[in-house]
């Protein structure tokens, strides 16, 4: 039977098929939700490294499966392994910080007194007006905050230890899915494309936009985060700030937020240096933060993210923040992707409504 010989579907059959399709799709999404993060990052890994797999096949004449396995090994060496090592070192540093807080070896109260005594009288008057001028009250509040911080750090270290198996399982699922997406990604994309009721040119444009935004967002943000975290951690180590690794990782994490991220860490430390009489350290850290750490964000992010996505900087920033507010850490990928796809769909819609000459 040729396609033209197929019997026409009745409206009831078409409606039933659509209801069934919707129900099955919702059920599939529901059962896959627990693995949302693993699926997302397997797609990201496939989009980033599938071109490498194709080049390996072309240059080494390897089959699809060996080339995909070799590509996955490279992902482990340059992506997963460094993250695991840094996370392990970070857990040790957080545990050490908790022990120093508990034993009293690390006591921020004298630093607070020195900072308070170094403040100009106008600032002290302003603090008194808003109820923060009493050093004893501040010490009580800080002691309470330190106690809560100690409890939080202890619970986090315990939680990390408890979740090691879950994290390892998630990584294993991600790598497992990545292998098949790297190896069979082109066939999977072709099948999805055939199922989409859109013109071929529109499908190609949407897929190109989706792939480009994910590659640019992940490569750009992760590269900027890694560089800013490394530079910030080295600066803190040079100025003998305790917990340089912890602060460097925190700067890398916060640098996902465009423009202001890393400065939320180094700027208060620079101000502390200035107020406590360590003028050259404060000025040097401020200059380093603005001219080196800040310029990395201002120079690299527009080149690596904005140029390829063709989205304005303010759109990238607000969709990154919104994505992280809704989806957590994964939102720094999902937010800009949704924005870019939205722009692309509106562009296609506008083109379809515009009369052609």
Descriptive account of the structure:
- The chain folds into two domains: 36-195, no CATH class; 198-351.
- The chain is built from 13 helices and no strands.
- The longest helix is centred in the first third of the chain and has 40 residues, at 64-103.
- It is an all-alpha fold and 357 residues long.
- The protein has helices at 11-32, 36-60, 64-103, 109-118, 121-129, 135-162, 164-195, 200-238, 244-254, 263-275, 279-309, 313-327, 331-353.
How do the helices and strands line up, and which of them pair or pack?
Layout: H1 11-32, H2 36-60, H3 64-103, H4 109-118, H5 121-129, H6 135-162, H7 164-195, H8 200-238, H9 244-254, H10 263-275, H11 279-309, H12 313-327, H13 331-353
Helix pairs in contact: 2-3, 2-7, 3-6, 3-7, 4-6, 8-9, 8-11, 8-13, 9-10, 10-11, 12-13
Give the domain tally.
Answer: 2
- The count of helical stretches stands at 13
Distance between the termini: 41 Å
* Largest β-sheet summary: none
Could you state the order of secondary-structure elements as H and E?
Answer: HHHHHHHHHHHHH
Low-pLDDT residue spans = none
Query: What is the arithmetic mean of pLDDT?
Result: 76
Radius of gyration: 26 Å
Beta-strand percentage?
Answer: under 5%
What is the helix content? over 70%
Category by helix and strand content: mainly alpha
The total beta strand count reads 0
Shape: elongated
């Amino acid at each position: 039977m040729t396609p033209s010989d197929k019997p026409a579907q009745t409206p009831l059959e078409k409606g039933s098929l659509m209801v069934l399709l919707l129900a099955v799709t919702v059920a599939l999404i529901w059962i896959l939700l627990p693995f949302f993060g693993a699926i997302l990052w397997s797609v990201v890994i496939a989009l980033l490294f599938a071109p490498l797999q194709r080049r390996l096949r072309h240059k080494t004449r390897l089959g699809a499966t060996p080339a995909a396995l070799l590509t996955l090994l490279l992902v482990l060496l340059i992506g997963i392994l460094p993250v695991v090592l840094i996370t392990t070192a970070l857990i040790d540093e957080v545990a050490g910080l908790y022990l120093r807080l508990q034993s009293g070896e690390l006591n921020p109260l004298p630093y607070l007194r020195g900072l308070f005594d170094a403040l100009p009288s106008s600032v002290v008057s302003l603090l008194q007006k808003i109820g923060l001028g009493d050093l004893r009250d501040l010490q009580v509040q800080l002691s309470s905050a330190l106690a809560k911080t100690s409890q939080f750090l202890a619970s986090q270290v315990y939680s990390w230890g408890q979740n090691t198996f879950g994290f390892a399982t998630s990584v294993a699922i991600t790598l497992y899915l990545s292998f098949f997406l790297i190896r069979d990604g082109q066939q999977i994309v072709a099948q999805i494309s055939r199922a989409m009721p859109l013109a071929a040119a529109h499908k190609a444009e949407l897929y190109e936009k989706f792939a480009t935004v994910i590659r640019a967002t992940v490569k750009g943000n992760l590269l900027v985060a890694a560089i800013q975290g490394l530079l910030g951690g080295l600066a803190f180590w040079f100025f003998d700030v305790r917990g340089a690794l912890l602060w460097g990782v925190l700067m890398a994490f916060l640098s996902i937020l465009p423009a202001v991220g890393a400065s939320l860490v180094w700027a208060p430390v620079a101000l502390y240096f200035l107020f406590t009489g360590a003028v050259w350290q404060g000025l040097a850290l401020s200059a380093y933060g603005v001219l080196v750490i800040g310029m990395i964000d201002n120079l690299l992010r527009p080149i690596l993210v904005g140029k390829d996505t063709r989205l304005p900087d303010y759109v990238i920033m607000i969709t990154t923040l919104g994505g992280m507010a809704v989806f957590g850490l994964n939102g720094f990928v999902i937010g800009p992707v949704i924005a870019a796809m939205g722009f692309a769909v509106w562009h296609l819609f506008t083109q379809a409504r515009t009369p052609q000459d």
